[in-house]
Design a protein that fits this description.
Blueprint lengths: L14 E6 L10 H18 L2 E7 L3 E7 L5 H21 L11 E5 L2 H12 L1 H4 L14 H4 L12 H4 L5 H14 L3 H13 L2 E2 L2 H11 L17
Parallel strand pairs: 4-5
Antiparallel strand pairs: 1-3, 1-4, 2-3
Helix pairs in contact: 1-2
């Protein structure tokens, strides 16, 4: 068996995490399922010291923005919530077998621009999926906290988000405008391809620093065989 490549994790650097149901099957049938997952996620993150900066619970997958001061903590938390939720989901819905499509995928997110863009990407998911007309119309995401509509003790506002305004009202106004602007096609494609390859999303400086710390390549690579040298 070929050993798995270690996940890219750097203490303090957020990870954009996504996990899908096997064969793209539904992992949430109703709000009771979503409440169960959210509770288990909070418990797992609390146990392993993981901060949740943003989230959205879709029908057959989840998107999370997580950070931890210790490498490996996010993997432990996700493994814990994944196993616990699958057991409870199967028991409630009378099914057997695996629920998840392999292990979760993750992407390191660095520098100011990309981190806020990933947060926006996560909270715009229901709009892109044509489930709602506006992000605030979807109940199961972190958008309500970021818009200042509620306080959620299990969510941890990222420092870059807190820098958007002096108080919750000011930050909510700025964030609402950001959401209205949407995401440029280039940024959307970059987020998706870096997540698919589980690479580090950020500028060249961030990627170089990540490579030095991890001792391995972290940049996205174009699919296919490397071009042959003509020298």
């Amino acid at each position: 068996m070929v050993p798995r490549i270690p996940r890219l994790e750097i203490p303090g650097v957020p990870l954009h995490v996504t996990q899908r149901g096997v064969n793209r099957c539904a992992i949430f049938h109703d709000d009771r399922d979503r409440r169960c997952y959210r509770k288990l996620l909070w418990q797992a993150c609390n146990r392993y010291g993981v901060a949740t900066h943003a989230f959205v619970l879709m029908g057959n997958h989840v998107h999370l923005l997580l950070a931890a001061p210790v490498a490996g903590a996010i993997s432990s938390a996700m493994r814990n919530v994944g196993q616990s939720y699958a057991q409870q989901f199967n028991l409630r819905h009378g099914r057997t077998g695996g629920l998840w499509q392999g292990r979760f995928k993750s992407c390191l997110v660095g520098d100011d621009r990309y981190l806020l863009t990933v947060m926006r990407y996560i909270e715009l998911n229901p709009v892109r999926a044509a489930m709602v007309a506006a992000p605030a119309d979807y109940r199961w995401s972190s958008v309500h906290m970021h818009l200042g509509a509620c306080r959620d003790p299990w969510l941890v506002p990222h420092p870059l988000f807190l820098a958007l305004g002096a108080d919750a009202r000011a930050r909510g106004h700025v964030w609402k405008q950001w959401l209205r602007e949407g995401i440029a096609a280039d940024d959307l494609a970059a987020i998706r391809r870096h997540l698919a390859q589980e690479r580090a999303l950020g500028d060249e400086r961030f990627q170089c620093e990540a490579e030095q710390r991890l001792g391995r390549t972290v940049a996205w690579r174009r699919p296919g065989r490397p071009a042959l040298s003509r020298n």
